[in-house]
Amino acid sequence: MAAERGIPDEFLDGFAGIVAEASATGRRLTRAELDSRRALGERAAEAGHGLRELVGVHLAQARAHPYGAATTLDAVLAAVAQGVDAFAEGYERAQRVAVRREEAARREFIDDLLHGRSDLGRIAERAERFGLRLSYAHAVAVAQGGHAYDEGDRAPRDVERALSARFGDRNVLLTTKDGRLVCIAPGDQDEVLVHFAKQAHAATDGGRVAIGRPQSGPGGVVQSYEEALNALDLADRLELEDPVLRAADLLVYPVLTRDRQAMADLVQNALGPLQQARGGAQPLIDTLATYFDTGCVAAEAARRLSLSVRAFTYRLARIHQLTGADPADPVHRYTLQTAVIGARLLDWPARQF
Predict the structure, then answer these.
(1) Which of 64, 133, 176, 191 is deepest in the core (most CB within 10 A)?
(2) Spatial separation of the C-alpha atoms in residues 314 and 267, rounded to whole Å
(3) 69-114 pLDDT, tens per residue?
(4) Residue with the larger pLDDT of the pair 198 and 99
């Protein structure tokens, strides 16, 4: 009967006899009997059989077995319930072990993929198991919220449901790394990353998302991931307000800091004299940054800094006096703006050179 349902008889070994013997006297199943059922449940799970079908064949065998006239229905049902419950317990235990093993393998793969710590050819082979075909270009988006997230948290689950509902199976891998949400998608499916950014921004209560450029091969995933992380770091240091950043739009900043010593010299020469001001250089640097961020509109910059236009204009004049560079002069403006960007990137004047 079990074979008719595709279940080998070995997974019911002795079940009907145990039920008949226990129900004849009304006793409970012994520890050895329960342990044997649990062991069979584990083996059935490892063999890939469904629990619903397994329970069905157990019930069918118990129903077909001939019982003595003195055996009551209640006693049979009690014995069947104990046996099936022990079998299901073993089955579920094996499934939990398998899930933990799969989770560990997935986490190891993600760590290797995002840090490039393993052989790239081996990573590409393992990637197909998790829905990625690394022979094509991929791009990585990273979302950072107010606190760290794990894969079991609500935010990544909500984002994953939203992506699945919108796009189905598109060879997309959603995970977490170092407390951030990470989405790896084919490089020609930018709409997936855009939707991820929208959903992640909402799920993390206004968190920021950075999208790396599409890159080819297993090493390309690492490069795109690092670009996204660098974009998040730049956004923090430059106090950028955009909720979604693209690494392609920020390429000028790594160029500016490629020669760190040259940038430090520029900052020191252009802005160093501001340290002579009362209150130090930082308030005047903030004044310049806001002025440039507003397109050099003094009235708007004053409003953002909660200053009167007169007070703001005085600050610009003080900067001109100390540095010899006029923020309103296009030639001087470029030098000052580049120096302000460098000061933010190098955390100056908080960190002196």
Answers:
(1) 176
(2) 22
(3) 878 999 999 999 999 999 999 999 998 888 778 777 778 888 888 8
(4) 198
20 to each of 14, 32, 98, 147, 200, how far by Cα in Å? 10, 16, 33, 58, 57
- Tens of pLDDT along 251-284? 888 777 778 888 899 999 999 999 999 889 999 9
Per-residue burial over 237-266, b if 16 or more Cβ lie within 10 Å, else e, is: ebebeebbbbbeebeebeebeeeeeebbeb
Q: What angle do CA 272, 273, 276 make, to 5 degrees?
A: 115
- Angle in degrees, CA 89, 92, 95, rounded to 5: 155
Residue 228 buriedness (CB in 10 A; 0-12 / 13-18 / 19+): buried
Q: Which residues of 82-99 are buried (b: 16+ CB within 10 A; e: fewer)?
A: bbbebbbebbeebeeeee
Q: Are 289 and 340 spatial neighbours (Cβ–Cβ below 8 Å)? A: yes
pTM: 0.65
Query: Given the structure tokens 């430090």, which residue do they identify?
Result: 264
Among the ranges given (8-12, 76-80, 178-182), the one the predictor scored with the smallest mean pLDDT:
8-12
Stated as kind and residue range, the H or E segment containing 210 is: strand 208-211
